[in-house]
Write a structure and sequence with these properties.
The complex is a heterodimer of chains A (about 260) and B (about 150). Chain A is built from nine helices and no strands. Chain A has about 260 residues and is mostly helical. The chains are: A mainly alpha (about 260), B alpha/beta (about 150).
Chain lengths: ~260, ~150
């Protein structure tokens, strides 16, 4: 009984380590090597459209609503201390440091990551990837690399849009609806937000999250069991694993950047 | 969907994102004002800096003229030395000027209040790298209470 449990534990550990290894080899094969911009660029543009542009709507809408909710909630607390002039920094710092990168990454995992996993998993199930290898086209360079770069490029951009829209949403609720002074909304924000400390660190965070989410999505798809059940499991795993890893890394990055 | 249309949409996406970054940098973080190129440095030694932090504002009569660049301990006397970056535009402070650590409001952030001094023939103008001699430390509430209780005892 106990030996069976131990065996199962050992096997799952070895499987996990092997999975890490396969994902590392996949990324290495996709990214290391002489880049061919003439062939790669149109593929990258295509993926930027699928991953970035098509995610824009959900990012803008959720950014707007999260900014509005932050302003509404922050106002009810701040006004008790007569500190409603500090609504601007509250909204801006929450968005720039935490919510912008994290919520963008979670939405991105749901919107783009799951689609990538399903797409690549289906390519594998229908043996398109093997077909490419037969035609001497490296599927890692042709399929994985453009999707990886498109994700890494588009997610920080999406996070920036999210932050900007969120701050405008906070302005909409705080200033236009609840009557906080518009001048103090912006001026206290400007006094408390630092370009490097807050804006650039937020961008660094979202680059890290982008690598995490897109790597997990691509690996789960590339490594999926090539059946319909396997693909559905891989898609679920992408969203769950990517979300949890993002939250874990967010804690580490926050401790490193703002904890000291 | 034609390739051309996709290219235009991706281009528009990148333009929107860059516009968002510019808005965050200029309107939210106000990066344009604190340009590091046109400032000069003054030093001030305090007994106690209280809650003063790097990048706290330096104000003359409520107007921000610079920011605290760094706070370090003097390795000989172990007193805090504050390095102040002051806008080049305000470069005529005499050496009789004084600087104090003040608090904005009852619970607000601490800042440096710079008080320009008098000028006559013997007084020189502070230049880049000079120290302000006349400093007043932050008021620490616990010390005040301690002094008050001590005086009551007498």
């Amino acid at each position: 009984m106990i030996t069976d449990k131990l065996q199962a534990l050992g096997r799952s550990t070895i499987d996990n380590v092997a999975g890490f290894g396969r994902s590392g080899l996949m990324l290495f094969g996709a990214l290391v090597g002489k880049p061919d911009f003439r062939k790669g660029f149109p593929l990258l543009i295509r993926q930027l459209y699928v991953i970035g542009v098509l995610s824009l709507l959900i990012i803008v809408v959720s950014g707007l609503f999260i900014g509005m909710v932050l302003a509404l909630q922050g106002y009810t607390v701040l006004v008790k201390f007569g500190a409603d002039g500090m609504l601007g920094p509250l909204v801006a710092l929450s968005l720039l440091r935490e919510l912008g990168p994290v919520v963008t990454a979670l939405l991105f995992a749901g919107r783009a990551g799951s689609a990538l996993t399903a797409e690549i998993g289906l390519m594998k199930a229908t043996e398109q990837l093997s077909g490419m290898e037969m035609m001497a086209v490296d599927p890692l360079r042709r399929i994985i690399a453009p999707r990886f770069w498109a994700g890494v490029i588009s997610m920080p951009l999406l996070a920036l849009v999210f932050n900007a829209v969120g701050i405008l949403g906070g302005h909409l609720i705080g200033v236009d609806w609840l009557g906080v002074d518009g001048g103090s909304y912006w001026s206290t924000m400007q006094a408390n937000v630092d370009l490097y400390q807050d804006v650039v660190n937020g961008v660094i965070k979202s680059v890290v999250f982008a690598i995490i989410v897109i790597w997990i999505a691509l690996h789960k798809g590339y490594d999926a069991v090539p059946t319909s059940e396997g693909i559905s499991q891989a898609t679920t795993q992408t969203v769950v694993t990517a979300s949890l890893t993002v939250l874990g890394f967010d804690f580490i990055l926050t401790a490193l950047m703002f904890g000291g | 969907m034609t390739t051309r249309k996709i290219e235009i949409l991706v281009g528009a996406f990148i333009v929107v994102a860059v516009a968002a970054f510019l808005m965050l940098a200029l309107k939210v973080a106000n990066a344009g004002v604190s340009g590091s190129g046109e400032s000069y440095v003054l030093y001030a030694k305090f007994e106690n800096i209280g809650g003063l932090k790097v990048r706290s504002p330096i104000k003359v009569g409520g107007v921000v003229v610079g920011r605290v660049a760094s706070i370090e301990l003097d390795t000989v006397y172990y007193t805090p030395v504050v390095k102040m970056e002051i806008n080049e535009q305000y470069s005529n402070f005499p050496e009789t000027s004084s600087v104090a650590i003040l608090t904005s409001g009852l619970l607000g952030e601490q800042y440096l209040g710079l008080q320009p001094g008098f000028i006559d023939e013997t007084v020189q103008i502070l230049a880049d790298g000079d120290s302000i001699q006349d400093t007043r430390s932050a008021i620490v509430l616990e010390e005040l209470i301690g002094q008050f209780l001590f005086n009551r005892g007498n």
